[in-house]
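Carboxypeptidase-like regulatory domain-containing protein, pasting as requested.
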Amino acid sequence: MIKHLFINKAIPLLISILLCWNEAFGQTTYTISGRITDAQTGEAVPFAAVAIKGKTVGVTTNFEGFYTLKTTQIGDSLVVSSMSYRKRMKAIVPNQLTQTIDFQLEGSEFKLQEVKVYAGENPAYNILRRVVKQKPLHNPNRLQAYEYESYSKIEVDVDNLSERFKKRRAMKQITGAVEQFDKIAGEDGRPVIPIYLSESISNYYFREDPRKKKEHILKTKISGIAVTDGSLISQMIGSSFQQYNFYQNWLSVLDKDFHSPIADGWKNTYDYYLIDTTFVAGYWCYHIDYEPKRPQDLAFSGSFWVDTLSHALVQIDASVGKSANINFVEKIKLQQEYEQIGDSTWMPVKSRVLIDVAELTDSTAGMLVKFYTSNRNIIPNKPHPPKFYDYPIELSESYKEYPADYWDKVRHEPLTAGEQTAYRLIDSVKQVPIMRTYIEVFNMFVNGYKRIPKVNIDVGPFLYLYSNNVVEGHRFRIGAKTNPDFSRKWVLSGSAAYGTLDKEWKYNFSVDYIFSRKPWTIGGISHSYDLERVGLSSEAIGNNVLFGALTKWGNVRRGYFEGITSAYLKRELIRGLTQTVGLRHRTFQPIYPFAFKTAPSLGDRSPIQSNYETAELFFETRWGKDEIFIYNENERLTLGTQKWPLVVLRYQLGMRRFLNSDFSYHRLSLNVKQSFRVGIWGRSNYNITMGYIPSTLPYPLLYTPLGNESVFYVDNAFNLMNYFEFVSDRYLQLRYEHNFEGLLFNRLPAIKRLKWRFLANAKVLYGSIHPSNMNLLAPTNAQGQTVLGFNSLGNTPYVEVGYAIDNIFKVLRVDAIHRLTYRQNPNVTPFAVKFSFWFNI
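Structure tokens follow.
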């Protein structure tokens, strides 16, 4: 009996144990690896889920899109899924222990599932509250200071090559070069043509109090069509322009402000869905998907993973689709991977940005712009002295000098096969003759000048080549300037213009010398003689090149010929503070009835004079806290002050009898301007100018606000004020504009797809004039002609208000403007609709 029981019970048990033993120690392990990329862009797809169909095992891709799956549970196919992509499967080769399976995923419009909460609230909300509460502990800006080594890579590709585009002459000539290489996107991807690739290695520094940033760019490598390895581009390809901090409420991408998914007002902007708890980068994390409540808003959709213990960001995937209120862009994708620094701070150590630029027409191609940044060797809380940060972007003098194997050693990750192909393809395409022609035409369009390499000068600008007006008739102008190939110190420029009606030559020339780039120190002399209009001088028009060119056309009221000779010296004294001093001599020769009294105390018995000369010392102090400058060849360009006002103080001292000057005078003006975010309400800009002239002077030397009688809207003008309508010797001017962006129109069902943007603005001018300046005007000139007078403002300010719709057909802005005061003045327009054209993102 016992023997029978042993046979029936013990032996089967023993067999089972032996089978389990064999399975535990003798089972087969399979290794599957590969890379997941975007089929359209060739970019890596991080955080994608990779699993064997029908099994419980799976992994996620790393930041470079690579995965390795080791399993004993083999199946017949591998499944890959990722947000905003179509799920895809590929067959597994049976009985093969090690194999490589790559995937190219096709994009798809992403829509979160409907969240139904039957009791309580959305479970993601409680996690979001903790994430937002803990933000001050995790934000890297909480550190006293930090620094790290940064590697940046930028690639620009042409994509979406339509059949019509491929048939173009230029494309036919480069087809041979393109076909030498594999498709950059991969075996299942779409073909793209790389036209630009750059790399940089730099040291990045941050200090919190006072808040300062600096990037010292050590080396750069640039290869591109229509670009050269110049200092301007080398300053812009570092990590300074790829700083994205989701712990801040707003992120600036393409000069647009996007609401962070973990911003303080998260619940008003986004919907959330708690997906799962998963193990990511060594941390158990909550996986949360999110999307904007309104697709037209400047907000992201995607996923983020937060540590279940600290509620810090570990990874984030953020996308902006073509439904958002942005132009010329099909998609923006921003991905970041974080690493814990110290006890609670989390620093983004890898960032990837993709911008998919749409085709403007069916006959053109699209464009992909890819940014990648990797940071390592992070050193926290070792601030440098404030002066160390004086130059936010510093380019090493030897940035282009390095041994052949330098980049292989310093890259944080090796180049992919596609990027290696891109370098070779760019070099091949640049050799095609028609591409050289296209490059030259492109540079002429962007810069307005035609470069003459043999003599190292640029001819132009083309906008001023021809005009026609009642004084000069047909006006022809030619100009030229030297470029850095001529000299890195000397800058020479000049132009000559001739009118067929007045048969007068107009001209200008200037010589500038750059004493130092750090600190920026430049000086120069210049002389010019040209036709001008009272109230429409080059100084009043400012940087509005198009409006300045238009003033050379048509009727010329209150015209005069002006000669100016000047010398100046400009130097950046300390970070953000630039001082200019100079000497200027002017001659004024009116071609309209004008005269002033030289001895106004004699009344009508005073001698009169029409022409005059002035000599003045001028001083300009410019203060921009944390203003960032970059250097374009022999020019210094500003990138703005970020969040601080820009302040400019000017003073002019007229010196009578010096260089035959007719007047002694003082002129003082102060300008303050700033752009700032107003939360979800949009962005505001203000510009305040005040001035005081406590001297007795002819009215052309007083302040004349800029009017605008054209059908175009001009930002720095009073758009319903006539030319030369008012004159003041003390004044206060305010220009204010608020851009609601898509805040209003995004909520209107009928028009939200049009992506219109609403703006409101107001312009106010207070001014007065001293009686002595009024009495200086003579009734007639030496020829007996009645002298044209002028008007001044009374106790009531000049006010005009307006509202505008921007982004009509992506380029058109329409302004409706109301003039509220001085509507009784002759020939005024109390209401007008004006147009302007802007290429806005």
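Note for the archive: Residues 1-9, 17-25 have pLDDT under 50 and may be disordered.
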